[in-house]
Design brief:
about 220 residues; alpha/beta; six-stranded parallel β-sheet; 8 strands; phosphoglycolate phosphatase activity; HAD_2; PGPase_prok
């Protein structure tokens, strides 16, 4: 069957958000009296949700993890405050993303976001980036009981958009995106410019060096 719908990861796929995530994580560390971390190190913590990012950032230079402790809860609250105050200080859409998304939308394709980012950040970020209106479904990391690499978010998208696995393409930068797509039985495009570049990722159906190459791939399927 031909592709009728797309599910897009957010961080590292549509938007380069590392600078603001790193800023918020380091601000939370500073509040706790801890030294600042390199942005590249914080980038390696992205992909499994905010709780994981904050826990790893707070415990990066400590013997014990902050996970589940009162200090971790406080750090997460401080991260939330700092991040919400600066969602798009430096965060930008990757080249070609806005044009391509609008072209897909105008052509009648159904579009979804499937991210492990919590909804409290996802919705305002999409609005500030000016792309929230093109998505029919938005699945954040706390929308459902399970998140990527579990298949549940993609099954939810298929149900909401009334498409089969053969009609949906997942587009993402990490192994979680590829594993979720494989678990759901749909095709997957891997963007090589994202945060998953240093990961050992399973093979995707197509690899995109630039986001706008998605349109070329789509046209080649006809």
């Amino acid at each position: 069957m031909s592709i009728k719908a797309f599910a897009f990861d957010l961080d590292g796929t549509l938007a380069d958000s590392i600078p603001d995530l790193a800023h918020a994580a380091n601000a939370a560390r500073r509040d706790a009296g801890l030294a600042q971390l390199e942005e590249a190190l914080i980038e390696s913590f992205v992909g499994d949700g905010t709780e994981s990012l904050v826990a790893r950032a707070m415990a990066a230079d400590m013997a014990a993890s902050f996970t589940g402790t009162a200090a971790q809860t406080e750090a997460l609250g401080r991260f939330d405050q700092h991040y919400l105050e600066g969602l798009t200080l430096k965060t930008k859409l990757y080249h070609g993303v806005a044009i391509t998304l609008n072209e897909l939308h105008d052509c009648g394709y159904r579009l979804a976001i499937v991210t492990n980012k919590p909804e409290r950040f996802t919705l305002p970020l999409l609005k500030e980036l000016g792309i929230g209106n093109v998505f029919d479904v938005i699945v954040s990391g706390d929308t459902l009981p399970s998140r990527k690499p579990n298949a549940e978010p993609l099954h939810y998208v298929m149900e909401k958009l009334a498409v089969s696995a053969d009609e949906l393409l997942m587009v993402g930068d990490s192994k979680n995106d590829i594993l979720a797509a494989r678990a759901a039985g749909c095709k997957v495009a891997h963007v090589s410019y994202g945060y998953g570049a240093a990961e050992s990722t399973p093979e995707a159906d197509v690899t995109l060096a630039r986001f706008e190459e998605l349109m070329n791939w789509l046209e080649a399927q006809d």
